[in-house]
From TrEMBL:
PANTHER family in the cross-refs: PLATELET-ACTIVATING FACTOR ACETYLHYDROLASE (PTHR10272)
Pfam families for this protein: PAF-AH_p_II
Organism name: Acidicapsa dinghuensis
Gene3D superfamilies: alpha/beta hydrolase
UniProtKB keywords: Hydrolase, Lipid degradation, Lipid metabolism
Ranges where the record places region Disordered: 390-410
Protein name per UniProt: Alpha/beta hydrolase family protein
Length: 410
């Protein structure tokens, strides 16, 4: 496969470097007709060993959090933003790292001042009979909870979101038995030449993408099993429309989603959020030459060349490669570039809302930018999973002025 430079350089989560305000912001109130429930699932794929685990005999184990529609409660729920945060904070290695990464937001998370709008283990809404499903993968060094506003937005509009916490890729995963699994750092042995270091990185990132894609396919397998089981064991049993499943990921997670869609036709559509691998390619490329089989929403921030990794010559080759890759996407695919002020890689998550603190102008801009992301995601999902028209994507007169849309496929 080709080098996956951006998956290392730009695939960052909440543990990046930010200018912090003194007070954490409140997440936007979900505006859909439903309330939001959440359940935690600890699932083990007994068909795979965990290549990212220090124990070579351990099978791949995932935490998956399902966000789903409920009847709207009469008062605003104050759910936990990041389950297990106090356990992480007490760890002598991970606690300081998280405090540094999250800044003043971390005490707000620990105290509950920053909260989600979920009700844990709540009964699902009685109608409709079944809900379409979105399986989500976070970026490198982040976690699923960093996309809480997006998940709440989708759940309040009738979608179930299955957010995977990818061990080894996430900043830290907390399991019910108290285990903390931090991100895996690949330390090369001394004495490698630059070419050998590059090859090692290529191999490592390629394996990471394959591993993430396998996680997503396993989660779909498990959702099928649980959906066919008892409601006493699984609150959403019988309520998942697994003929209408989308894969979505941000940053490195976008590459996981794209690769899984290359390999598995059960996924009906694919959403890649700011996952370009500059200066190499836009989508994963492996020796099998598999291509995405489903309609794709390739949604990204606008980057000028001055802020792109690599040389001008590499950029020219990248633009050519990207154009060719996107031109091969199936009918019903879209390339959407967002260019509002303040739009950045972290704008697809809660990042800039949380770290705006009490600065109203920055908060308003961050909420606007995430809202723009949500609007295009919802239009694409509604078209592909619910069969409703999407004038925002298909009618040039309805497009947002801060978005450029290219319709792909023949």
């Amino acid at each position: 496969m080709k080098p996956r430079i951006l998956a290392v350089i730009i695939a960052v989560g909440l543990a990046g470097i930010f200018v912090f305000a003194e007070d954490a912001s409140k997440l936007p109130q979900p505006t859909g007709p439903y309330g939001i429930g959440r359940i935690a699932c600890d699932w083990t794929d007994t068909s795979r060993l965990d290549t990212l685990s220090p124990d070579p005999t351990r099978h791949r184990e995932l935490m998956v959090y399902l966000w789903y529609p409920t009847n709207r409660p009469s008062i605003e729920p104050h759910g936990t933003y990041l389950p297990g945060a106090k356990k992480i904070d007490a760890d002598p290695q991970l606690g300081p790292s998280m405090r540094e990464g999250y800044g003043p937001t971390w005490p707000q998370i620990l105290s509950g001042a920053l909260y989600s709008h979920v009700v844990e283990n709540a009964p699902a809404a009685k109608a409709p009979k079944q809900f379409p499903v979105v399986i989500f993968s976070h970026g490198l060094g982040g976690n699923g909870f960093g996309y809480t506003a997006l998940f709440e937005f989708l759940a309040s509009r009738g979608y179930v979101v299955a957010a995977i916490e990818h061990p080894g890729t996430a900043d830290v995963v907390v399991f019910p038995d108290g285990r903390l699994v931090p991100i895996t750092h690949d330390t090369p042995p001394p004495g490698l030449t630059p070419a050998q270091q590059m090859q090692r990185m290529m191999d490592s990132v390629g394996k990471g993408i394959e591993n993430g894609a396998a996680d997503e396919r396993f989660v779909l397998d498990r959702l099928i099993k649980e959906n066919n089981g008892s409601a006493k064991e699984f609150v959403l049993a019988g309520r998942l429309d697994l003929t209408n499943v989308a894969l979505m990921g941000h940053s490195a997670g976008a590459d996981f989603a794209a690769r899984a869609c290359e390999l598995d036709a059960r996924f009906k559509s694919c959403i890649a959020l700011d996952g370009a691998m500059v200066p190499v390619s836009a989508l994963p490329e492996f020796p099998d030459h598999a291509k995405i089989q489903q309609p794709l929403l390739y949604l990204e921030n606008h980057y000028d060349e001055a802020h792109m990794f690599g040389t001008h010559e590499q950029h020219l080759a990248f633009f050519k490669e990207k154009e060719q890759e996107l031109s091969q996407c199936p009918k019903g695919s879209y390339h959407v570039v967002l260019s509002p002020p303040g739009m950045m890689h972290g704008s697809f998550s809660d990042t800039y809302i949380l770290h705006a603190g009490n600065m109203s102008e920055q908060t308003a801009q961050a909420v606007h930018n995430l809202g723009l992301v949500e609007t295009y995601i919802l239009a694409f999902l509604d078209k592909n999973l619910k069969g409703t028209p999407a004038p925002l994507l298909d009618d040039p007169n309805a497009s947002h002025p801060e978005a450029t849309i290219e319709r792909l496929g023949k």
